[in-house]
């Protein structure tokens, strides 16, 4: 099976992991270095806070901002980007996606923005960028906050500037381009908010060691063997031991010990080392994405997600004229682990939790592009270390299936 994303692991990552795991070091040293290195990527006036995950970065940020209103965002996203909004008593205000970029349509925001909207959250799905400068201008004009969800956009650029540079706040995940131990990062020029969140985070317990061991083992197995469902197997194994939350309850998720926690130095040390290879990883992902796009360029039924910037391609999305379930079943039968947006995404996620309790806005019904594309989008495998045979096999299979 060609996996959806084979984690890019170098022998140095393994060496670093075991060195850090078995050595005693000055606590907090690597976290401090990682935060200052990361902030410097954006400029001297930025502050960074290393967190246990992207979703926790957003949850803590929204708690401190205490907005209590609507947050404009895209309906095409994953539950990790919506849960923190709901769990902090805010309401997602969905505005439609652009049918080419699959991202929040910046040209519709001014049309639908209302006085209850307290923030815009731009989600750079797949690492692709919309017109973030325009979104910032709209946010500033209406005196609301622009938050960039860069969970899938580490290393992506727009107008030659890193994604994360456009919002008042931005958060990242280290579980997409990087692997093995995970973590998140929140950045901003607002020192006071970052420090308030740091204070709250300092009170939390450290991330459970068994969670890091589980992630390490899962990514290692996945990268070496490419076994289908390895993620599911390990997730079940881990959650069975720690069955302390109901998956569909956004509030419960943030009460779980392995979510509401602070990251540790082992994670920071690993990420510091892996960031040295980020440009190389991004370059290879871009190269492989371009090879796939090139080989499918004559197939007019396949449309690739458009990018206004220079994506680091955490994910590779296409649309076809057919139902994605059908296309994916056929691809999986051919050994290509394509994915569809599942019940944990967009409207399905909204329907899966208690609407009355969480007071969802009915804006979803105005999202005609989203409703049209949701069941047509297919995520194709993309990895930095894909080989040419795999690319050839994926593209020729798709050309045979969709002609
Ligand atoms: C768009 C988006 N936002 C947020 C997250 C949450 O990232 P993390 O797993 O680091 O909490 C994800 C992860 O899947 C994501 O895809």
Description:
The protein has 403 residues and is an alpha/beta fold. The chain has two domains: 188 residues, Aspartate Aminotransferase, domain 2 (3-Layer(aba) Sandwich); 124 residues, Alpha-Beta Complex (Aspartate Aminotransferase, domain 1). The chain is 44% helix and 12% strand. It has a seven-stranded mixed β-sheet with strand order 1-9-8-5-4-2-3, sandwiched between helices. It has a three-stranded antiparallel β-sheet with strand order 10-11-12. A two-stranded antiparallel ribbon has the order 6-7. Helix 1 runs antiparallel to helix 11, helix 3 crosses helix 7 and helix 8 packs antiparallel against helix 9. The radius of gyration is 20 Å and the shape is globular. The chain binds pyridoxal-5'-phosphate.
Series of secondary-structure elements, N-terminal to C-terminal = HHEHEHEHEHEEEEEHHHHHHEEHHHHEH
Beta-strand content bin: 5-15%
Question: Which ions, cofactors or small ligands are bound in this entry?
Answer: pyridoxal-5'-phosphate
| Helix content percent band | 40-55%
Average pLDDT, rounded to a whole number, is: 90
What is the name of the CATH architecture of the largest domain? 3-Layer(aba) Sandwich
Number of domains: 2
Q: How many DSSP E strands?
A: 12
Q: Helix count, per DSSP?
A: 17
Which shape, going by the Cα principal axes?
Answer: globular
Write down the Rg: 20 Å
- Strand order of the biggest β-sheet: 1-9-8-5-4-2-3
Determine and state the CATH class of the largest domain. Alpha Beta
CATH superfamily of the largest domain: Type I PLP-dependent aspartate aminotransferase-like (Major domain)
Report, as a whole number of angstroms, the end-to-end distance: 23 Å
CATH topological fold name of the largest domain: Aspartate Aminotransferase, domain 2
């Amino acid at each position: 099976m060609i996996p959806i994303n084979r984690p890019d692991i170098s022998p140095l990552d393994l060496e670093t992991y075991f060195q850090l795991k078995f050595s005693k070091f000055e606590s907090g040293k690597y976290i401090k270095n990682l935060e200052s290195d990361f902030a410097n990527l954006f400029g001297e006036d930025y502050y960074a806070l290393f967190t246990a995950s992207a979703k926790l970065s957003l949850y803590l940020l929204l708690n401190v901002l205490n907005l209590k209103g609507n947050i404009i965002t895209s309906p095409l996203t994953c539950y990790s980007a919506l849960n923190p909004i709901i769990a902090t008593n805010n309401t997602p205000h969905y505005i439609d996606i652009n049918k080419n970029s699959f991202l929040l349509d910046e040209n519709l925001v001014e049309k639908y923005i209302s006085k209850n909207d307290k923030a815009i959250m731009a989600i750079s799905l797949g690492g692709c960028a919309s017109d973030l400068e325009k979104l910032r201008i709209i946010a500033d004009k209406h005196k609301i906050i622009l938050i960039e969800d860069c969970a899938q956009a580490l290393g992506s650029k727009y107008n030659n500037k890193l994604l994360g540079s456009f919002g008042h706040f931005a958060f990242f995940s280290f579980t997409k381009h990087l692997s093995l131990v995970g973590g998140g990062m929140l950045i901003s020029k607002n020192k006071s908010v970052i420090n308030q969140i740091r204070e709250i985070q300092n009170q939390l317990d450290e991330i459970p060691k068994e969670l890091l061991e589980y992630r390490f083992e899962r990514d290692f197995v996945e990268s070496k063997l490419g076994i289908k469902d390895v993620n599911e197997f390990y997730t079940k194994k881990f959650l069975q031991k720690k069955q302390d939350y109901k998956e569909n309850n956004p509030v419960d998720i943030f009460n779980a010990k392995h979510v509401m926690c602070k990251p540790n130095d082992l994670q920071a040390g690993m990420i510091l080392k892996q960031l040295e290879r980020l440009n190389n990883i991004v370059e290879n992902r871009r190269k492989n994405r371009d090879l796939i796009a090139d080989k499918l360029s004559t197939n007019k039924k396949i449309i690739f997600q458009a990018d206004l910037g220079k994506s680091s391609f955490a994910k590779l999305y296409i649309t076809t004229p057919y139902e994605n379930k059908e296309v994916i079943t056929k691809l999986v039968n051919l050994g290509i682990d394509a994915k569809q947006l599942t019940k944990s995404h967009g409207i399905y996620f909204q329907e899966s939790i208690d609407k009355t309790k969480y007071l969802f806005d009915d804006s979803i019904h105005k999202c005609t592009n989203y409703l049209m594309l949701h069941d047509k989008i297919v995520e194709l495998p993309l990895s930095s270390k894909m080989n040419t045979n795999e690319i050839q096999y994926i593209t020729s299979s798709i050309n045979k299936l969709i002609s």
